[in-house]
Each structure stands twice: as structure tokens, then as C-alpha cells.
């Protein structure tokens, strides 16, 4: 069980990691979309020139990438916290 001070100290680190993970996931999605569709711009759900299939494939790909990056950052942060503090974070 982590102490209150450790939790407070780790909060800004977790927020920064969350922002970095979001930026990395966004970049990875754009690069993956270029490979999958050969198009520099991923479709937006409100774009009238894009079809349902393209919109849904892009959303699914984006969801997978964001979920994997989020899980990897969360797990890595927990492991690092355990190594630094000797305690698994709550």
C-alpha cells in the first residue's frame, strides 16, 4: 500500500505520461493509417466524402492503437513505481 505522499508525488508524473502516451498514440495512428489506406489524412466521422467502411475501420484502428499504448504506459508506470518505491501502486 502506497503512502499518501507517494501517491501525491506520482500524480503529476502520471498526468505527464498520459499526455505523452496520447501524443505517441496519435502519431502511431497517423503513420498506421498512411500504411493501411495510403492516405495522409484519416477520415473524420463527419466527412461527407468518406464512406461508412472507411470511417469504421479508421475508428477501430485508432481505438486499438490508443488502448495498447495506454496499457503499455500504465503497466510500465506501475512497474517503475514498484522498482522505485518497493510497492505496487493502487
TrEMBL record:
Keywords: Membrane, Transmembrane, Transmembrane helix. It comes from the Bacteria. It holds the Pfam family DUF4235. The chain crosses the membrane at residues 12-29, 55-73. InterPro entries: DUF4235. This is Membrane protein. It comes from Actinoplanes utahensis.
Amino acid at each position: 500500500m502506497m503512502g499518501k505522499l507517494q501517491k501525491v508525488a506520482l500524480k503529476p508524473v502520471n498526468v505527464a505520461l498520459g499526455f505523452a502516451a496520447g501524443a505517441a498514440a496519435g502519431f502511431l495512428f497517423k503513420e498506421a493509417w498512411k500504411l493501411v489506406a495510403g492516405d495522409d489524412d484519416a477520415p473524420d466521422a463527419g466527412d461527407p466524402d468518406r464512406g461508412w467502411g472507411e470511417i469504421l475501420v479508421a475508428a477501430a484502428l485508432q481505438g486499438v492503437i490508443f488502448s495498447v499504448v495506454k496499457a503499455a504506459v500504465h503497466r510500465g508506470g506501475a512497474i517503475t513505481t514498484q522498482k522505485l518505491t518497493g510497492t505496487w501502486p493502487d
